Amino acid sequence: MSRRMVIAGNWKMNKTPSETRAFIREFAPLAAGAEHEVLLCVPAIDILPAVEAARGTNIQIGAENMYYEESGAYTGEISPDMLTDAGATHVIIGHSERREYFAETNETVNKKVLKALEHGLIPVVCCGETLTQREQGITVDWIRQQIKIAFLGVSADEAKKTIIAYEPIWAIGTGKVATSEQAEEVCGAIRALIAEIYDAETADAIRILYGGSVKPSNAAELFTQPDIDGGLVGGASLKTDFKDIIFWK
Ligand code: PGA
To answer: Ligand 1: which atom is nearest the Cα of residue 92?
Structure first.
């Protein structure tokens, strides 16, 4: 097993272009030399300044969303070519906030995943259950459904490059982190599902991140779980202390 960990930030709707430039200038030296992959997913308008500020550093820049058409009459949307031309390497797909506030479904997530891969963008595919679903004991069933549909038509070779982020909705931005056992149980179930859909080699290669109130104080416990290959970090990625999550060990 030789999966390289990914520590990814998700800025959500935070930081202007000038704040982005200033942050990355300050943050880049602090993240230098990290053993793990470092990724910052930023608002669309911040991608260009982020890519410019991160040039020559170990920080990769990703988007937080993308549309699944090439171009055309889709006012307000961002195309895959726009992202790659701006220098983004990754794109978050199907974050629970997109599903909740912007009506994304498993089907649109699947279309976006396929389109991102077609353009050489690495999708960070999000999944996660609500508190009610957890209390009803249907977490794993729900996640299996989300992932199965997200990966429809994705080849094993493409799946190996893809990143999955397991983010229990009740743990996002709430300060309530899943226990390492809860997080590992679901991440392990996702890996088993990938083995079922594809094969053991694909399951062994794919990176599965945990997200939801990750901070410097809980990173080590989560990231030492066998099926957790890093984190998708919201609030704690907005400050330069994010380096403490990147250097969790
Ligand atoms: P949080 O957000 O770290 O602020 O809980 C995580 C996410 O939504 O990706």
So the answer is: 9
